[in-house]
Amino acid sequence: MATQATTQRGLSFLQIAIALQTVTIFLQAVSAGLLLTASYGETLHSVGARVMYGASMLYLLAAVLAWKPGGGSPRPVWYATGFLALASAQVVLGIAHVPSVHLPLGVLMFGLSVLALARR
Fold this sequence. Notes:
By secondary structure, the protein is mostly helical.
């Protein structure tokens, strides 16, 4: 009984983490648009990048917590690890000012995050 409750809480935390990640990636797209039109766009996008990266780390933590103690599938851990790798590449590409890869990767990340959210 205790294992079942832990698993249900872990999945709930995992769903929240994926939803948070999806929202932060969407907000990054909005702030990228503000880069072109508002003086505060760059600051907002920079802060948003840190929040998005933190959300990706939270997703990995939630996946590990749902898997290890609850005995769930390790598949979400692999997805979250891959997502953190994509987020790391996104940060590096953003700092290096490589929009030709940074923008499409952001679109890909949003699509994958929505897909992960729909699967939960």
